[in-house]
Design a protein that fits this description.
One of its GO terms (molecular function) is RNA binding. This protein is α/β, with parallel strands linked by helices. It is about 35% helix and about 20% strand. It is globular, with a radius of gyration of 20 Å.
Length: about 325
């Protein structure tokens, strides 16, 4: 594999898919990162694109690269060469309310950061959640498990309108060699693939944020926080995590108070997850169709004995009751 240099100028600015080039920095030491990122300040709030690459990225996998997209540069934080010291230098920024992290589906990235580095990812703008909220806001019908993929989001002309053919190429390579992201030096393909996962996030963010009303933005903040917590199970009920965003006062009226949303973790008896999921997923899909809540299972990456439910309190309680009823039926 051809090695990449530590400073490249070959891609469009994230704010303009057809525009000028922007440098890519391969970071192995914290001193190579912008000071305003390393030392977040309320006087200089930032919005950055963010993503992680790794081997079996979850609590037990290996975080290999963190991508940071700024308006004028992209930084590939090399967690393999820079090690724990480099990743932990990013902790204040990743936990800061002064830096908005634009990401697509934050759950596994958050899990890896939490269990491997004790980083509680905070203040995310999750484009997968935002996409669904905009669809609902514009009158679309919510369909269970109808989550927009990143490739699908990039292809949508309302947000970006580009194809991402290289993503499939990388997926094939990952199936052939799961350790793809561990190899050093980084090849040109690795740099290009890592960069492509973040370079348009700020452009998409700017397209999305102007479409969202205040209620949708509040739900986005709450669900983003709950998604960050989703697979990060703690013994103290997330007491050491940042508080969920409060309901804005101007959304509260005598006749209309937005429903509180919560995360519930349902324990599944050993060996019973198959019954909960059902044949070809039929049982879990039926539960999702009967409740206005998001329901996630750990799958191959685990945890294997938990079901995670996110949504309005009443709908979450309904899902819990149905899940527990299904588990009782198996005895």
């Amino acid at each position: 594999m051809a090695a990449a240099s530590s400073h490249l100028t070959s891609i469009p600015l994230p704010s303009d898919p057809g525009g000028e080039v922007v440098p890519i920095h391969i970071v192995t030491h914290a001193s190579q990162l912008p000071s305003e990122f390393l030392k977040p300040s309320p006087d200089k709030k930032l919005v950055i694109g963010f993503d992680c690459e790794g081997v079996d990225l979850c609590r037990n996998g290996t975080l290999c690269i963190m991508q940071l997209a700024f308006p004028d540069a992209i930084y590939l934080v090399d967690a393999i060469k820079g090690g724990r010291t480099l990743v932990e230098a990013c902790k204040p920024a990743l936990e800061s309310s002064n830096i908005t992290k634009v990401i697509h589906d934050c759950k596994r990235d958050s899990e890896a950061l939490y269990f491997q580095f004790n980083i509680k990812l905070h203040n995310v703008f999750d484009t997968q959640i935002a996409y669904s909220l905009i669809e609902e806001q514009e009158g679309g019908i919510k369909v269970p498990d109808d989550y927009i993929s990143f490739v699908g989001l990039l292809a949508d002309p309302r947000y970006c309108g580009i194809s991402y053919l290289e993503k499939q190429e990388v997926r094939v390579l990952l199936r052939q060699d799961p350790n793809f992201w561990k190899y050093r030096p980084l090849s040109e393909l690795m740099v290009r693939a890592a960069t492509d996962d973040v370079r348009f996030l700020l452009y998409i963010y700017n397209k999305m944020v102007v479409k969202m009303n205040q209620k949708s933005l509040w739900y986005l903040a709450v669900r983003g926080a709950l998604y960050c917590r989703c697979f990060c199970i703690t013994d103290n009920d997330y007491a050491d995590w940042p508080s969920l965003p409060p309901t804005p006062e101007n959304l509260i009226t005598d006749n209309n108070v937005p429903e509180e949303e919560i995360l519930s973790v349902v324990d599944v008896p050993p060996g019973k997850m198959g019954v909960v999921i059902g044949r070809r997923g039929a049982s879990i899909l039926a539960i999702k169709e009967s409740c206005n809540a998001e329901i996630f299972i750990g799958g191959d990456k685990g945890p294997p004995d938990k079901v995670f439910v996110i949504g309005p309190v009443k709908q979450v309680r309904k899902a819990e009751a149905i899940l527990r009823g299904r588990m009782l039926d198996v005895y």
